[in-house]
Design goal:
With 287 residues, this protein is an alpha/beta fold. It has 2 domains: 76 residues, Arc Repressor Mutant, subunit A; 171 residues, Winged helix-like DNA-binding domain superfamily/Winged helix DNA-binding domain (Arc Repressor Mutant, subunit A). 46% of the residues lie in helices and 15% in strands. The chain contains 14 helices and 8 strands.
């Protein structure tokens, strides 16, 4: 019997490998040919693919890594957030304050877990891999990222667990149009206004609102976030609420890092979290 052909790596996997190579060897200033070789692609194909997924050229990405290192040095003198604010990241970089508004379910709606609610969903490619987008008449209620090899039958499970009583219906065309506003392409930020509908306790919603206030390109620790909502002793509970955020990227839980400066965990994978943070630092080059 003939053996099945080995599946080719997805474009996202190739770009992720190239990003890892550049982050590891950026001080050596690798050439386009060297970086393309790391992704197992021709230079021409790699250049085009990289810009499609990341939004800028490999050369500009290398420049952003220099900025990242400078920011890291600045952070050594204080908290990450304070350093970001002191370097002017709070101006036009306050992306989520400007483009995202958040609505929460009423106590009765929270208790009923989505009874009477219809969620249209679509599965699409994004700058951070395949994503699942869920939308209601009241706003976006879900944005998650998954691995390309995940079985289609399992992609909807987390959405169903969060909204167990809601009716789910395919809405590929509607969500495709919405996704273009979230990821317009060419590295551009979301085109607002975007309304989000969240399903959580009062404490969770309070944490998620605080996440919206973290400026583009900045990060906070769990302790910083707990202090920001005036619950300095609730660091563990804050961490749990951050991990339960169902609208990834738009509610930027990826901007929360460990107190030792480590990247920390992420519901949709730590490597994806690293890519998101680098992507946002690149945006600052254009501000």
């Amino acid at each position: 019997m003939q053996k099945a052909a080995k599946p080719l790596e997805s474009d996202y996997v190739r770009v992720a490998k190239a990003l890892e190579f550049l982050r590891t060897d950026w001080r050596e200033q690798p050439t386009l040919n060297e970086t393309a070789a790391a992704a197992k692609l021709s230079p021409h194909h790699f250049q085009r693919l990289f810009k499609t997924w990341v939004g800028i050229s490999p050369k500009k990405y290398l420049q952003s890594l220099t900025l990242t290192d400078a920011q890291r040095q600045l952070r050594s003198g204080g908290t990450v957030l304070n350093t970001a604010l002191n370097t002017g990241l709070s101006g036009s970089g306050r992306l989520h304050d400007l483009f995202v508004s958040l609505q929460s379910m009423t106590p009765a709606e929270y208790r009923d877990q989505g009874i009477g609610l219809t969620i249209g969903f679509g599965i699409h490619n994004s700058p951070f891999g395949r994503c699942l987008l869920g939308v209601t008449a009241r706003g976006i209620c879900w944005l998650s990222f998954d691995k390309a090899e995940t079985e289609p039958s399992k992609i909807l499970l987390p959405l169903k667990e969060t909204w167990p009583s809601a009716r789910l219906t395919p809405a590929q065309k509607e969500t495709a149009g919405l996704l273009k506003r979230i990821f317009p392409g060419e590295g551009s930020p979301p085109r607002g206004p975007l309304t989000l509908l969240v399903h959580g306790t009062d404490f969770q919603v309070r944490v998620w609102r605080a996440l919206l206030g973290i400026p583009l390109g900045a990060t906070m620790t769990y302790g910083d976030l707990a202090a920001d909502i005036q619950k300095p002793k609730a660091v563990r509970a804050v961490g749990t609420a951050v991990g339960q955020n169902a609208i990834s990227f738009l509610i930027p839980c990826h901007r929360i890092i460990r107190s030792d400066g480590g990247i920390g965990g992420y519901r949709w994978g730590s490597p994806r979290k690293e890519v998101m943070l680098e992507w946002e630092k690149i945006r600052l080059l254009d501000i």
